[in-house]
């Protein structure tokens, strides 16, 4: 799965969870500053991503500041799962 495909899924889930327009979410979007997400919102997004991709995201999710960070975390877990 490409990072672009992962991004589209992250974008969709974040938009649904935060009740915002997906077009306003880019790779450089700050989760807290631009989307006004709190820690519970981030937790919910991460849980949905775990379910969607059948992966486990560890405590690094707390360090995810941008959508790009989240995409990288998911890509890393998918790569580890394939090995």
From TrEMBL:
Pathway entry: Lipid metabolism; fatty acid biosynthesis
Location(s) in or outside the cell: Cytoplasm
A Pfam family the protein falls into: PP-binding
Modified residues (O-(pantetheine 4'-phosphoryl)serine): 39
Positions of the Carrier domain: 4-81
PTM field: 4'-phosphopantetheine is transferred from CoA to a specific serine of apo-ACP by AcpS. This modification is essential for activity because fatty acids are bound in thioester linkage to the sulfhydryl of the prosthetic group.
Matching InterPro entries: ACP, ACP-like_sf, PP-bd_ACP
Keyword terms, alphabetized: Cytoplasm, Fatty acid biosynthesis, Fatty acid metabolism, Lipid biosynthesis, Lipid metabolism, Phosphopantetheine, Phosphoprotein
Main localization category: cytoplasm
PROSITE patterns per the UniProt record, alphabetical: CARRIER
Coiled-coil blocks: none
Role summary: Carrier of the growing fatty acid chain in fatty acid biosynthesis.
NCBIfam families: PRK00982.1-4 (NF002150)
Family: Belongs to the acyl carrier protein (ACP) family.
Record's protein name: Acyl carrier protein
């Amino acid at each position: 799965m490409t990072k672009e495909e992962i991004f589209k899924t992250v974008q969709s889930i974040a938009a649904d969870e935060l009740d915002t327009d997906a077009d306003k979410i880019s790779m450089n979007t700050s989760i807290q500053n631009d989307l006004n997400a709190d820690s519970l919102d981030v937790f919910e997004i991460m849980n949905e991503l775990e379910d969607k991709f059948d992966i486990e995201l560890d405590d690094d999710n707390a360090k995810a500041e941008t959508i790009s960070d989240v995409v990288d975390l998911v890509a890393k877990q998918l790569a580890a799962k394939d090995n």
